[in-house]
Amino acid sequence: MSRSVCLFVLLLMSVWATLVGAPRAAAQAANEGVVTEMVDRYGFPPPIRVYVTGFSPALTDVMRTDLMFMGFTNVPQSQAEYVVRGTSGGGKVEARLIDAASNQQILGKAYTGSDERLLVHALSDDIAKNRTGRPGIARSRIAFRVDYVKGKHSEVFVADYDGFNAKPATSDKLWTVAPCWAGSGMLFYSTYHERGGPKIYYHQLSSGKRGMITPYGGSNISPAVSRDGTKIAMILSKGGSPDLYVADLNGGDLKRLTTTKESESSPCWGPDSRTIMFVSRASGRARLYTIPMTGGTMRPFLINNVPNVTEPDWSPDGKLIAFTTQYGGNFVINIAEYKPGASIQAVQIAAGEDPSWAGNSRALIVTRRNGDTKQLSLLDVPTKQTKTMPRISRSNSQPSWRK
């Protein structure tokens, strides 16, 4: 047999082994609970396999949830890459992170305080930062809308990222919607009064101080604060149709960015705090556009496989856009890579709407419908794992995750 024929035969054998062996290996890995993909299409590595032991059942559940949304998966000890050995009690939480293969300690931490749940959150954040390099999110907070009387009475609540320790930020018995964060201690939102259209308010959480920043006629909605905390984008109809405006946080130095006859909606900021993405119907259907905060040309962000796009949110690392679409009457969360000037293919992730990114650019908080009620849910984008959050009153929606 010639050398060329031998090489051809070897190549065929190699291809056959790949075709037959890869599914078998994947099936075996699936049965063992092991993720084999090295890096997915968006750059997410496979979850880190971890086993948590030593805590009470309640605190173990807290840590497992924390880690699930920060790049880990909880497995039996025999399959773990790392083991968290912890103790708790008397206002103290201690833990060691052990490399399962070498039995060497990677990290050792001790925390003291009155709330052991918060101490475990701190531990989870430190473990995530140590192993993934991404910021921890377990000590982050969310704001969201709670409906009491549909269309008439809703309030803004603030809670831990997992829905615990929820407290009302407003108690006006008015229709208050679309909260967003400005740093760690201030919110913006729109409130509908009995007379006149909705106005945008700021609200300092520590003092309760608040005030109106848009005393204009018509609609004043959809506040979105820049990542550097210096500017606010919003939708105002003071010039006729609902257009995109930007201003200082106190409402000063107001600048109109769009002048279309159609409506704009849902602004969000890029990580550079200089670019705003928003929804416009300038082309007839709802599409995404970007525009500099200083003004200029609206540039379409082309997503070629979805009919209408709403509620975008830009990941803190700038790589992904999460948004809502509707298919057959159902709301669906999609993500797409941010590639200016390119035609992008979106990927459906899960049922839901109102997506808001976590600071680690991996997890989302979304709204899910159950009949005529709504409930918040955490979503890990690469694994599609979800966790339904505790519900307050009848419907909870419009979450905003403090970055």
What would you call the quaternary organization? single chain
Radius of gyration over C-alpha positions, nearest whole angstrom: 24 Å
In total, how many beta strands? 29
The CATH C-level name of the largest domain is: Mainly Beta
CATH H-level name of the largest domain... which superfamily?
A: TolB, C-terminal domain
Considering DSSP H and I runs of 4 or more, what fraction of the residues is helical?
A: 10-25%
User: Any idea what the shape is?
Assistant: globular
Structural class: mainly beta
- Number of separate helices: 3
Q: Report the sheet with the most strands, covering strand number, pairing sense and barrel closure.
A: 5 strands, mixed
Catalogue the unreliable spans.
1-38
Q: Report the portion of residues in β strands.
A: 35-45%
User: Largest beta sheet: what is the strand line-up?
Assistant: 2-1-3-4-5
Counted up, domains total 2
Under the CATH scheme, the architecture of the largest domain is 6 Propeller
What is the mean pLDDT?
A: 89
What is the CATH fold-level name of the largest domain? Neuraminidase
The separation of the N and C termini measures 65 Å
